[in-house]
Amino acid sequence: MKSLKYRHRLSIAEKLGRMMATVAMADQDMGNAAAIVSVPMHRVRLRERGMNQSLLLAQELSNELQLPILSRVLVRTRYTRQQTTLARKKRRGNVSGAFKVVDADAVAGKRLLLVDDVTTTGATLEECAKTLTDSGAVAVYCLTAAIALTQ
Questions:
Q1: Whole-model pTM?
Q2: How many domains does the chain have?
């Protein structure tokens, strides 16, 4: 995952995206999703990194599952410290209130597949899912390419 995230090895996103699609198709709930949403990056971090690896994974999932990506619906409203630099107890507070849905009509009444590259504590996914459901999504299913073993 680090090679994708920090070394821009984009072929990894293709392979992981296909594997994630297999998982999604095998899951009854995820199979009912109407659209895909990727965890957004703050514009400063996007400029630093040059790509959003979660969006790359979402694009592969979209191709495999034939689902639209709602790429500009969920936005990160403030710059946050990288979760990997924080202790487990501080991660939830770091992302609290950091996301906003800018088009509630696009998510209202929909079952969404929320995609991220890695989860450790689940704080980012929980905050994004809460933001989406507070804006009218009826369900949010989370799918990540990896789970970090260090917490």
A1: 0.87
A2: 1
